From TrEMBL:
Molecular function as annotated in GO: phosphorelay response regulator activity; transcription cis-regulatory region binding
SUPFAM superfamilies: CheY-like
Keywords, in A-Z order: DNA-binding, Phosphoprotein, Transcription, Transcription regulation, Two-component regulatory system
InterPro entries per record: CheY-like_superfamily, OmpR/PhoB-type_DNA-bd, Sig_transdc_resp-reg_receiver, WalR-like, WH-like_DNA-bd_sf
Entry GO CC: cytosol; protein-DNA complex
Protein name (Swiss-Prot/TrEMBL): Two component transcriptional regulator, winged helix family
Coiled coil: none
Domain OmpR/PhoB-type: residue ranges: 123-222
CDD domains the UniProt entry points to: REC_OmpR_PmrA-like, trans_reg_C
Chain positions with 4-aspartylphosphate modification: 51
Phylogenetic classification of the source organism: Bacteria, Pseudomonadati, Myxococcota, Polyangia, Polyangiales
Single GO biological process annotation from the record: regulation of DNA-templated transcription
DNA-binding region: 123-222
Response regulatory domain sequence ranges: 2-116
């Protein structure tokens, strides 16, 4: 598995990094909450280990930002806070599991494996006509040809393909893909649609396209799929 560890305590970082690599996992480390917010969107991780007590931007704030931005990667919250109320707070903020420090390393590994199984593991794929959208690897492929998608490109294509044939407005896409707290320019949707169109054209020619509906938004059209109505 590819894991992201978000932890600022050096001794804990060394323990987790060494132990998880010995278990055969790929491990990236972030010691800053602000950096972790962007890192998790830029790289496709299977599971994220997140410390609650980070400096500046704490773990709960990081977690809420991920969920607002529609990042669905399973998150295991690590913390010394172990009361029932604190556990409930962490889970309601968007954590998928919660482990109190100090913990047994074998239990940590077992919880990571359980989260990975629960999220669908390696088999999260969606067929788009002749193309395959791989959620774990964030790739779009046709046979042996493959294109890697950024986190935002993947989220946008996943949303459009989940409603193939239907028109999704720019405001709907902004809310779902960029999060309700996004305060940038609305034309960012058009920019990312352009990126996706280029990759779709390279792999599928006109078999899978993103059509603009003037004054409304966009829809994904698969040549052999009957279009929906909206």
């Amino acid at each position: 598995m590819k894991l992201l560890v978000v932890e600022d305590e050096p001794k804990m970082v060394r323990l987790l990094e060494r132990g998880l690599r010995e278990e055969g996992h790929q491990v990236d480390v972030c010691t800053s909450g602000a950096v972790a917010v962007e890192q998790a969107e830029a790289v496709a991780y299977d599971v994220i280990l997140l410390d609650w007590s980070l400096p500046e931007l704490d773990g709960l704030a990081v977690l809420r930002r991920w969920r607002e931005r529609n990042l669905r990667t399973p998150v295991l919250l690590l913390t010394a806070r172990g009361t029932v109320g604190e556990r409930v707070t962490g889970l309601r903020a968007g954590a998928d599991d919660y482990l109190v420090k100090p913990f047994d390393f074998e239990e940590l590994v077992a919880r990571i494996e359980a989260l990975h199984r629960r999220s669908g593991g390696h088999d999260v794929e969606r067929r788009l006509g002749p193309l395959t959208l791989d959620a774990r690897r964030r790739t779009l492929s046709r046979g042996s040809e493959e294109r890697t998608l950024t986190g935002r490109e993947f989220a946008l294509l996943q949303e459009l393909s989940g409603h193939a044939g239907d028109v999704l407005t720019r405001s709907e896409l902004l809310s779902t893909v960029w999060g309700t707290g996004f305060d940038g320019a609305p034309n960012v949707v058009d920019v990312y649609v352009g990126y996706l169109r280029s990759k779709l054209r390279e792999l599928a020619d006109e078999a899978v396209t993103i059509q603009a509906v003037r004054g409304v938004g966009f829809r994904l059209v698969i040549a052999d799929k009957v279009e929906g109505k909206r």
